[in-house]
Amino acid sequence: MDGLTGLKYIKLDNFERSGNNFLSYATSLKTAYFPKLKNIWLQETPSNRSSFYGLSSLERMYMPMIEQINLSGNGNIATFTNVKTNCIFYVNPIMETIYLGGLDQTLASLVSTRNAEIRYVTNDIMPNPVINVSGYNITSNSVDLSFSEPLPNTNAVDFYEVWVDDGFGLNHSRVPHQEIQSSGGTVLNLTPNTTYKIKLKTCDYLYNVSNFSNEITITTNKE
């Protein structure tokens, strides 16, 4: 899985161990969701191995069960090198003290060199869903969404995934169309004169995800 330059979202529910060159140079990738990933492994010889390298668009890396990451910069071994600045890493709390009582070395390097944010996943409590989505300001390629933002459950609400036609598109399946931060957000990149079904999922601070909201049907305007 090297060089998937058009990939924007990946979700592998049962993936536990990565290897050499996994997802390196996936330069369009924004979200990687691996709920069971425990080990990011690289072969030590020859020493020019990489994994998750060059992810220049990565915004969220979800791996709450991670127990081991190869040290970036160990010879030419590189993990998460050159990821986007300000990327959020959702990890096992054990990583906070795993290296001599301190933060995992690779994560520490990401904090210092890429201004990464580390979030320790301490619970998997599902947030409350949105229940009253409606659409307005429909154009030929967009629609604004209005809804009552749900009360936080255990963790603060962080953002909302927008699902269009159950996540099926021309080049993908079962993935969200985009994210919005709050009611009033705009769904973009729609096709003129096309009918869509749209619904939301609430995502909290630890990337726990709710059930779907109600679903609405809208038809974009002609150009």
Can you tell me about this structure?
With 223 residues, the protein is mainly beta. The protein has 2 domains: 9-120; 134-219, Sandwich (Immunoglobulin-like), CATH 2.60.40.10. 4% of the residues lie in helices and 30% in strands. It is built from 1 helix and 18 strands. The protein has one helix at residues 105-114, and strands spanning 9-11, 17-18, 31-33, 39-40, 50-51, 60-63, 68-69, 78-79, 88-91, 117-120, 134-136, 143-146, 157-164, 178-180, 186-187, 195-204, 209-212, 216-219. The protein has a 5-stranded parallel sheet with strand order 1-3-6-9-10, with helices on one face. The longest helix is centred in the middle third of the chain and has 10 residues, at 105-114. It is globular, with a radius of gyration of 19 Å. 32% of the residues are buried.
Rounded to the nearest angstrom, the distance between the terminal CA atoms is 39 Å
Beta-strand percentage range: 25-35%
Q: How much helicity do the residues have?
A: under 10%
Question: Could you state the oligomeric state of the chains shown?
Answer: single chain
Taken together, the total number of domains comes to 2
Low-confidence stretches: none
Residue-averaged pLDDT: 90
Describe the largest sheet.
5 strands, parallel
Query: Quick one: overall form?
Result: globular
Q: Name the strands of the widest sheet in spatial order.
A: 1-3-6-9-10
Supply the helix-strand structural class.
Answer: mainly beta
E-strand count: 18
Compute the gyration radius: what is it?
19 Å
* SSE pattern: EEEEEEEEEHEEEEEEEEE
**What is the count of helical runs?**
1
